[in-house]
Design the sequence.
């Protein structure tokens, strides 16, 4: 498998132009996100290569799957990946900033599902890390650092664009879970499902998969372990991602 193209069971993703390549986080979110039977519209915020939007096209019958991406090269790549898929008529990418998009669309469009694998790494950085970051291309920084899409902007944008009974789904560092839930509550979004992810049985919790809605309900909480040992994946992980990966 080359760095340029990543082949899944039902689609392929070109990734040579996009700053952030395909990784476990995006695939986890796309596979895990709860889908309602009557989904009509989906929005993928910060789509990058378009991976998660493509996964939503495979998993759902939603007739409108929109994506937004601010970085120009990634936007162009997502458009190409959408056009090259079997679902090009359902997929559309906007070259847009979330705040502007939300302000413009909030009175016109409400989405039944909003999904995002947002940038994780927050500044300020230690001097050593900062020095290394100087060498990272701007596009990759935008894809990695949360100051390009702060969590408070993300939850606000989602609250403006989500339908009354819609779901907002994200993957974030486990260390940010409490803070993110607090930010979401301020715009009346409440956790519905939480899955905490760790690499192995003995490793620390690394990620939180969170699904929110405007309704306060009992929260379904569980844990997902990815590997038993190196490249020896758990049955739970294999079952989750089996519809997408060619082999595990």
Sequence:
């Amino acid at each position: 498998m080359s760095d340029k193209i990543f082949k899944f069971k039902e689609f392929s993703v070109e990734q040579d132009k996009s700053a952030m390549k395909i990784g476990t986080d995006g695939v986890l979110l796309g596979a895990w996100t709860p889908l309602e039977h009557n989904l009509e519209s989906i929005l993928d915020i910060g789509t990058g290569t378009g991976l998660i939007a493509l996964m939503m096209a495979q998993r759902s019958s939603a007739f409108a799957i929109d994506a937004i991406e601010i970085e120009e090269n990634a936007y162009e790549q997502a458009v190409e990946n959408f056009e090259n898929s079997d679902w090009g008529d359902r997929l559309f990418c906007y070259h847009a900033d979330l705040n502007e998009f939300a302000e413009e669309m909030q009175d016109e469009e409400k989405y039944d599902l909003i999904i995002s694998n947002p940038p994780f790494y927050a500044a300020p950085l230690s001097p050593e890390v900062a020095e290394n970051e100087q060498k990272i291309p701007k596009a990759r920084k935008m894809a990695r650092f949360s100051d390009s899409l702060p969590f408070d902007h993300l939850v606000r944008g989602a609250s403006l664009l989500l339908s009354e009974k819609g779901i907002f789904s994200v993957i974030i560092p486990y260390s940010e879970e409490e803070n993110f839930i607090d930010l979401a509550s301020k715009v009346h979004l409440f956790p519905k499902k939480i899955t905490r992810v760790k690499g192995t049985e003995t490793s620390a919790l690394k990620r939180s998969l969170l699904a929110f809605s405007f309704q306060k309900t009992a929260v379904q909480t569980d844990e997902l372990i990815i590997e038993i040992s190196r490249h020896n994946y758990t049955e739970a992980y294999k079952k989750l991602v089996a519809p997408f990966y060619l082999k595990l």
User: Anything to note?
Assistant: Confidence is low (pLDDT under 50) at residues 122-147. The longest helix spans residues 72-83.
